[in-house]
Amino acid sequence: MRPGPGADANRWVAPSTVRDGLGSAAGRRGAFDRVGRGRSGHRGRDDRAGNVAMVSGAASAEGIGSRLDGTVSTHLVRLLVQAARQAGVAEEQLARVSGTDEVILRGELNRIPMGSLLRLWELIAGARPGAGSGAAIAAAAPLGSLNTWDYLVTTGATLADSLHAAQPYHRLVTAATEGFDLSGDGDLTIGYRTSAGDPAVASVVNEYVLAYYLRRAREATGRPLVPTRVSFGHAAPLDRSGLTAVFGTADIEFDAGADAITFHADDANAPLARADPMLADLMRSHADLVLASARPIAGPLDAFRVALDAALDARDPALPRVAKSLAMSQRTLQRHLAEQGTSWRDELDLVRHERARTLLDQGSSTVTIAHRLAFTDDRALRKAFHRWAGTTPTASRAG
Predict the structure, then answer these.
(1) What gap in Å lies between CA 53 and CA 315, rounded to an integer?
(2) Is the Cβ–Cβ distance between 59 and 288 less than 8 Å?
(3) Burial (CB count within 10 angstroms: exposed 0-12, middle 13-18, buried 19+), residue 229
(4) 312: Cβ–Cβ under 8 A, 6 or more apart, which residues?
(5) Helix segments in 185-318, DSSP class H
(6) Neighbours of 158 (CB within 10 A)
(7) For residue 182, what is the enclosing H or E element?
(8) In Å, what is the CA distance from 281 to each residue of 46, 153, 182?
(9) pTM for the full model?
């Protein structure tokens, strides 16, 4: 699709993926298999991924294959959107970054393009250049900011155990192109390689990452750990005092061969104050579920579908609400949908049919279904159902 000029066109390029919950895009494949292509001429949703096979264990994270490559978590994107605002990035600039709509960022299963993350890093580096920019983002990210990942790296028996157990799940938070390395027989070294091509941007990214792992190590141990070594690939800043304060040491190497932080063996292998084997197992199981269920950005139509889902959840799926949630005019939204061979009315019709079938299967009454799907009354529901299936809801349930 060729977006037209203006902010609306740029905003439409921000697609989304599925979210969880009744009637979510993730659950529509099965419903659509029963419904078929819908009414004549309607562009159905059977182009989506099939049912997700449930997987478990560390191998499952790697077994996701290339499906999530090039995508990142909504939690990381949300953190950077907040950081960009704090750095003074204009809202109109943020509005042009794909996948940063609030309705998209609410869903843990949604996966945002890596290009959007890099663009946010570029905006932050431009608004707040120099040393300390990346570390400030880590300082503003308390435990839990990155959701499951934060607990994966802080609840093992030791810091080394936590990080090694979490490593196969690194794709949970960022793209596979971002390198996350662990090394050392005694001391523990965490290395990071960003795919950001601009050295000024890469320096902010790597500074954030190393400061992030230091913060999590301190939170996990309950002690003000000081790394034995910190190295950055970029040149030394004129003023190092800010980084010295963050890392607790002036022994920071610049123009190094790698961006890395090293913890002494005593610190890496000491029992963690936050050690919780049951929680660690639970987090890994949840990580398996998220990786198996997550959906990468597939196209611009998904942004509309997520917004429509959310609007129907709120029992207000009217075009004005959906358009507003996507930060575009009704006319622009209608034009983009037409370019995709569909319309607001057709999409609403399909999602209502899918949800109605699900609710009927669950034993809900027609009065309840009509209310849940924002019909004026159950008579309007019955009329719509006859149009969809050529029968009544009651007859459909009996069949």
Answers:
(1) 31
(2) no
(3) middle
(4) 23, 348, 351, 352, 355, 373, 374
(5) 199-221, 241-247, 265-268, 277-293, 301-313
(6) 18
(7) strand 179-183
(8) 35, 12, 21
(9) 0.72
